[in-house]
Amino acid sequence: MIRKSFIIGFTLALSMLFTNTYGQDPAFSQFYANPLYLNPALTGSAFLPRLTLNYRNQWPSMPAHFVTYNAAYDQHVSQINSSFGILFNTDRAGDGMITTTTVSGLYSYNLQVSRNTFVNAGLQATYYQRRLDFYNLVFDDMLHPVYGQIYPTAERPPENLSVSFMDFSTGLTVAHKDILYGGFAVHHLTQPYDGWYNDNSTLLNRKWTLHAGAVIDLEPRSRGRRSLEAMTLSPNILYQQQMNFKQLNLGLYLNKYPFVVGTWFRHNFENPDAFIFLLGFQQSSFRLGYSYDVTVSKLKNVTGGAHEISFSFLFNNPEQSRKKNQAIPCPSF
Question: Which of 75, 96, 143, 297 has the highest count of CB atoms within 10 angstroms of its CB?
């Protein structure tokens, strides 16, 4: 009965999508472990060919939970100071009642504006497809108080069970030495229509992102360079806004090779959302991270939080290893 009640509640929430509402993007707790998704300008930020994989299961204790998969590859081409990437993302909401799939091509240009300061500008073009499994939805008018689901619904099926379109985004990042970094991104520049009905009332609203942080050495450097094994502390801030939804993440990472631990607080401006705890393992060629969101909102007793796993692999590039380029000093998780 609890399961059915939640499905009904989720369905009622879906019905709001059939009126004058706006789309909202999935969010990752380990946002730096998903750099191309965070900001197109982070394409090629490692300066080595890079593969990243991400998995997020949000509210697993609820029957209609949210599962998101992400895969990306990017590579820097030093001869033209440019980087190229490709990004795949699939989001399944409500046990697959709504499935959103995107495929993106990304480009960024790396500009050295002074001896120790670099600026990256990025562009992203995305093919976006969204599907609705309308005929498996359960509405309240389909239910009998004793016999359960026996009636047909009076809800009008949408004209479109699948919506697809092109989408465009852009971003900028700045890094000073291997200490300070920050960035700005705007996704869904054209605010495309992504509704099920032909009334142009549902838009994929622009998402604005600001992120910044620093890497603080806790041990002396060797020959003026920070080694992978060095102990560091990295405070960070992330702000995102999409339509009326506003979110602020505050936290820090502690790096003690080969482990990284992190803690965050994510605050939605309407209410506190979650504490995030991270454990990561890193080597020179790969990173593996796990994080768990402890829900502190009014849903804290029923959601089961959120599990997230990230993996990245850096491919060896002998030509690039002879260059003096250094990766943007963003965290790996």
Answer: 75
Cβ neighbours of residue 29 closer than 8 Å, sequence gap 6 or more: 56, 264, 266, 274, 276, 278, 291, 293, 306, 308
Position 276 in a domain: yes
Q: Is residue 148 predicted with pLDDT exceeding 60?
A: yes
Distance of CA 207 to the CA centre of its chain: 12
213 neighbors 182 (Cβ within 8 angstroms): yes
User: Across 11-20, 101-110, 112-121, which has the greatest mean pLDDT?
Assistant: 101-110
250 vs 274: CA distance, rounded Å: 11
How many domains are there within the chain?
1
Residues with Cβ within 8 Å of residue 5, at least 6 apart in sequence: none
CA distance 143 to 137: 12
DSSP assignment letter at 31 = G
pLDDT tens for each residue of 45-62:
999 999 999 999 998 888
Bridge-based pairing state of the strands 117-132 and 98-112: antiparallel
Is 333 contained in some domain? no
Q: Provide the 8-state DSSP code for 193.
A: B
Supply φ then ψ for residue 62, to 5 degrees: -90, 140
Pairing of strands 50-58, 66-77: antiparallel
Tell me if 326 is assigned to some domain. no
Phi and psi of 81, rounded to 5°? 50, 35
Residues of the domain holding 253: 2-321
Q: Where are the alpha helices (DSSP H) in the chain?
A: 2-15, 35-38, 318-321
As a dihedral over the C-alpha atoms of residue 187, residue 191, residue 196, residue 201, rounded to 10 degrees, the angle is 140
- Structure letter (DSSP) for residue 83: E
Residue 200: burial class (beta carbons within 10 Å; 0-12, 13-18, 19+): exposed
